[in-house]
């Protein structure tokens, strides 16, 4: 080989070594030092549910390094109880309820974490399970409980991590606040288990109105209360199931889920509230008319004679009421006999029928003039 070529090759290698020495930071070389200690970040014990999997990170303090280094990829793992948890390539899987210790080892240095495995979660629920907020208003985050496969119930509210599906609502200082009108989902996470709570953010209502404002009901009958609201923009919305109602006389009329029910005879005033707006409706509860009873079942009169009949209304409550003056009277043959306010006057010989009608009922008797 040409001596000059060898000389230039040696010079090139020397230059490369000098360049590497200048460019590569000293910390890289320090990273090749001995591992002093390792740790698995996070608290101990760790809680898991049967069937869940998770991975742990391992950080090492290395001689000569100015910061802790991630050595997870080079860890040798072991578990004290494979019936409770298994670990493969750093991935821990919960097998059965119980407790096990996971050990990480790097270059002869160890760290460990205790894992507590609980029975699988069968269900999770939030209370309340839905919200409706006026824009700008806020409420406390829901309480959350779980039921495990063994039937045991636990409150886990303090362990829930909450998020919202959009910026229509925000979580601030442990409360949920409506920001912009619309629908958003509040999502709570407990381990790998999720609970979702729908939230409706509404605009500010300027007026509400109930129709009809006066209602008549019979006992045990119900009717829905229709309430319409108007926003400042003029847009209307049905608030029938959103208004909170109270009754001045709950023994007469009661309201539930926007429906009023007659319970006993009398009158009650219903007061509904929504967003600080109030509306009222008057409910009259009346008994059901069962039948009309005439004072006579039949009459026989002579021409030019008269007879005063009375008619009584009978209700489902057992109550009776004389309604003679309020009834509508008629004769099928006025040329035989006439009737006015229950007073029958015989005109000529023959037969006729006298009828009294009141409310939705009527009663008829035969009258013979001879």
UniProtKB/TrEMBL annotation:
Signal sequence extent: none
The BIG2 domain, residue ranges: 34-116, 120-200, 204-284, 295-368
SUPFAM superfamilies (alphabetical): Invasin/intimin cell-adhesion fragments (SSF49373)
Domain of life: Bacteria
Record-linked InterPro entries: Big_2 (IPR003343), Invasin/intimin_cell_adhesion (IPR008964)
Protein name: BIG2 domain-containing protein
Lineage: Bacteria, Bacillati, Bacillota, Bacilli, Bacillales
């Amino acid at each position: 080989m040409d001596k000059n070529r060898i000389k230039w090759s040696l010079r090139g290698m020397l230059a490369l070594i000098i360049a590497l020495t200048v460019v590569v930071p000293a910390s890289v070389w320090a990273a090749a030092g001995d591992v002093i200690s390792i740790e698995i970040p996070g608290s101990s014990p760790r809680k898991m549910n049967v069937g869940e999997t998770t991975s742990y990170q391992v950080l090492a303090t290395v001689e000569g390094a100015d910061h802790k280094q991630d050595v997870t990829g080079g860890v040798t793992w072991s578990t004290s109880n494979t019936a409770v948890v298994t670990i493969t390539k750093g991935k821990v899987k919960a097998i059965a309820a119980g407790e096990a210790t996971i050990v990480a080892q790097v270059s002869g240095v160890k760290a460990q974490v205790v894992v507590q495995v609980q029975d699988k979660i069968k269900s999770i629920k939030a209370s309340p399970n839905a919200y409706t907020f006026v824009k700008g208003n806020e409420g406390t985050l829901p309480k959350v409980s779980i039921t495990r496969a063994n039937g045991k119930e636990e409150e886990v509210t303090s362990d829930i991590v909450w998020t919202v599906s959009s910026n229509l609502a925000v979580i601030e200082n442990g409360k949920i606040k409506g920001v912009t009108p619309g629908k958003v989902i509040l999502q709570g996470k407990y381990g790998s288990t999720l609970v979702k709570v729908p939230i409706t953010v509404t605009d500010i209502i300027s007026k509400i109105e109930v129709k009809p404002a006066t209602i008549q009901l019979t006992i045990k009958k119900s009717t829905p209360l229709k309430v319409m609201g108007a926003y400042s923009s003029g847009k209307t919305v049905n608030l029938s199931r959103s208004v909170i109602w109270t009754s001045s006389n709950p023994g007469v009329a009661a309201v539930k889920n926007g429906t009023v029910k007659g319970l006993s005879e009398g009158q009650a005033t219903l007061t509904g509230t929504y967003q600080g707006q109030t509306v009222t409706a008057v409910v009259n509860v009346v008994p059901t008319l069962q039948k009309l009873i005439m004072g006579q079942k039949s009459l026989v009169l002579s021409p030019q004679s008269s007879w005063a009949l009375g008619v009584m209304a009978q209700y489902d409550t057992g109550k009776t009421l004389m309604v003679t003056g309020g009834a509508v009277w008629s004769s099928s043959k006025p040329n035989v006999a006439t009737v006015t306010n229950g007073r029958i006057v015989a005109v000529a010989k023959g037969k006729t029928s006298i009828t009294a009608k009141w409310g939705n009922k009527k009663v008829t008797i035969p009258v013979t003039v001879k």
